[in-house]
Specification:
The protein contains four helices and three strands. By secondary structure, the protein is α+β, with helices and mostly antiparallel strands. A three-stranded mixed β-sheet has the order 1-2-3, with helices on one face. Strand 1 (35-42) and strand 2 (48-55) form a beta hairpin. The chain starts with a helix and ends with a helix.
């Protein structure tokens, strides 16, 4: 079991590194210029990789960029196959990463609650 976890973690890190390099160096589409791969999670059998991405300064174009990334999946897999020593490459699923926005929202709620508590004292 522990060995399986480390293999999956290594695959996740490699996929994240490869995709980040491809997007920044080899993809010529200007829409992907501000895309950052924030995290990759592979399934236990490494058949699927959920690729979480962030967009700098263009949050209103999430669907468009998600579509561009999905269309480029073939290119990404072809380039990844040369660098990953896997029998079968995982299917890539691109998901917009909302962790940062969720954290900001939670902070605002906490601040609002603290202010309400201070007013009620």
């Amino acid at each position: 079991m522990p060995n399986e976890f480390t293999i999956n973690k290594k695959v996740e890190v490699k996929i994240q590194r490869i995709l980040s390099e491809l997007i920044s160096l080899k993809v010529s589409d200007p829409r992907l210029k501000n895309v950052i791969i924030s995290e990759v999670r592979v399934t236990k059998d490494i058949s699927t990789a959920k690729v979480y991405f962030l967009i700098l300064n263009q949050q209103n174009k999430v669907k468009q960029i998600e579509s561009v990334l999905r269309k480029a999946t073939g290119f990404f897999k072809k380039e990844m196959s040369a660098q990953l020593n896997l029998k079968k490459l995982p299917n890539l699923i691109f998901i917009y990463d909302t962790k940062e926005q969720d954290a900001l929202y939670m902070n605002k709620l906490i601040d609002k609650t603290i202010m309400n508590d201070q007013k009620n004292k």
